[in-house]
Amino acid sequence: MTHVLRHPAAPSNSSADGAPPPAIGGIRIALALIAGAAVVTVVVGFVAFATTIANARPPVSPEAEGIVVLTGGSARIDGALRLLAEHRATRLLISGVNPAVGPAAIADTVDPEMESIMSCCVDLGHAARDTIGNATETRDWADEHRYRSLIVVTSDYHMPRSLAELADAMPGVELIPYPVSNPELHLDTWWHDADAFALLVREYGKYLLTASRLALSPLAPPPAAGLAGNASRPAA
After folding, report:
1. Rg of the Cα atoms in the chain
2. Which of 185, 198, 211, 176 is nearest to 88 (CA)?
3. Structure pTM?
4. CB burial class (10 A; 0-12, 13-18, 19+) of residue 236?
5. What is the pLDDT of residue 220?
């Protein structure tokens, strides 16, 4: 009689009808739920982010020891200079200025009435190349003058990320946001304006990356290379 040797059947990862076993099916469902929740969280967060920016308004009568404006548009500098002219603070830092640009070049782009202020009370920061650099440059300037409160001037869409970087760099300093709006961007109707929507999506992505980086690396940025200020500024 012939004996036929049979290998034991390999365990199957599927049920008789071809469906995955309950354990694998449960994992897939859990992963799908997690992914769905993540998408919903991001979408809800974006809507809240965009709505906050669309509704952002500058304070009526801000007051602080110093003002910092992050370069990126002439409207930002004009707004900061007006605050300085109204004596909302005693000194202004323009952070992130191109190294080839001096006080005279900036004075040529602003209202002639502001030229006297440019010559006495404005410092130019040439070290910053991005928002992280702005925060480091501002921290060093505030430490130099021993300022504990600052009015922060930048575009409304850039404000959340700027405040996050500045607050991380100098947690003991009061930051007063002064958002500047560009009427050509139509951020107040972002949901049916393609350019505004795209801008907010990009900025929201940058903000999420910034928030994640700061949460994982809570240390303050290293000191900046230095500031190019006006020679007549008072000693701290």
Report:
1. 27
2. 176
3. 0.77
4. exposed
5. 44
Report the distance separating Cα 123 and Cα 92, nearest Å: 6
H/E stretch holding 51: helix 22-54
Residue-averaged pLDDT of the chain:
83
Residues with Cβ < 8 Å from 133, sequence gap 6 or more? 95, 96, 127, 221, 224
Residue 149 is encoded by which pair of tokens? 């409160």
Helix (H, G, I), strand (E, B) or coil at 168: helix
For the stretch 24-36, pLDDT in tens is 767 878 777 787 7
How far is it, in rounded angstroms, from Cα 62 to Cα 81?
13
Give the sign of the dihedral formed by CA 14, CA 18, CA 24, CA 26. Answer: negative
Domains observed in the chain? 66-182+192-216 (3.40.50)
3-state secondary structure of 210: helix
As a whole number of angstroms, the distance between CA 90 and CA 172 comes to: 19
Tell which residue, 55, 83, 52, 56, has the closest CA to residue 69. Answer: 83
Under 8 Å between Cβ of 227 and 125:
yes
Report the pLDDT averaged over residues 79-88.
93
Token pair 């992914």: residue: 35
